[in-house]
Amino acid sequence: MITDYDVLIAGFGKAGKTIAAKLAAAGRKVALIEKDPGMYGGTCINVGCIPSKRLIEDAMHAPDGLLEEKAEYYRRAIAEKRILTAALRKANYDKLIAAGVSVIDGTASFEDAFHLAVDTAEGRILLQGKQIIINTGSVPVIPPIPGADQSRYVHVSETLMDLETLPEHLIIVGGGYIGLEFASMYREFGSSVTVLQDQKEFLPKEDEDLAASIRSVLERKGVRIITGARISGIQENVLAYEADGKSETLQADAILLATGRRPNTADLHCERAGIALNARGGIETDEHLRTAQRHIWAAGDVLGKLQFTYLSLDDSRIILDDMNGSGTRTIENRGAFSYSVFLDPPFSRVGLNEKEAQREGIGYRTVSLPASSVPKAKVLRKQEGMLKALITEDGTILGAELFCAESPEMINLVKLAMDQNLKADVLKNFIFTHPTMSESLNDLFSL
Question: List the disulfide bonds (predicted).
Fold first, then answer.
């Protein structure tokens, strides 16, 4: 028996749930399939940005004192994190049910371009959709480290955030931004932290001065960073690696594999629907996020590109505009890309850095100032870091790198200026409230 729907959505992520609610409210018959009820609402609210940022905030207020006191504080933080994510999960589910969306628990796979088979606890069902949206997200990349899959001490980010016992020593494999966020967080909670990365250069995509500043802050907090480390194996809680021609071992209470995420397409059988995958295993789409089948779209992490929930939200806008609007929104006109890394202080960036501008042959000048020169930084007792921007001869803002307190809020002002083609003088002369970190943009763009 086949059940017909106007729209089928595979995956309860940011884009999928947003599209489902809007289409159902407009009178469309919509089914949303999610294989894990613990993931209602998507990665962000369950095992990603919301729980990790809640724990990062808690870590900043962790007590000084004995390890036992810190361990109890950490245990309470994990418990409160679970309460938060459960409430958000329920709110997301209730919103879709109230909108009239049929939420189906099960694993979806294509039978052909118009049919999804769903394996549920009660058996397999077959759904037919006039339009289909793929929003199945991503899964952690597990590197082929001998012994990693046999050790109870090895974690990925979501399992580590559910660990009730504070690790006395945490090893993090991977020096990317997820790894560094966890390094900063667990060091604040009171763990001894060692970061191992295979590349010799620390944060190789960032400008050297920013990378050096970030590394210096982390190391002053007590995070040990080892670059050029090749992991040779894990046996229970002992990790073996080679660096600088020497073989070394480390013992830990927990080992985090922060080695990236890949598109979650393994169960979909996209080939049955005539849908192509890109080099990273993600769904191949055009600028409107349409696949090779014009009635099928894909959104979010499953694309195999940048993995941020706010881009997934914008994906939903592009798809809805393509389905029901003018079709003018595309991935090509979404403006400058910005992101934040929630270290202490946080690092935020938008647009080009020096490495990228030089690679593209674009002329620029740099302006920079230390975070310690900002009055609000003194008020907050957060004087570490630096602010930096790239400007062309005619005042066009190419990009900004803000390693300072409250940078995740500040970077949005710079992105807005860039997207609206405002020159650096606009931020130079803007009247900001005082004292704020944002008013530092007056000084930065005056240099």
Answer: 44-49
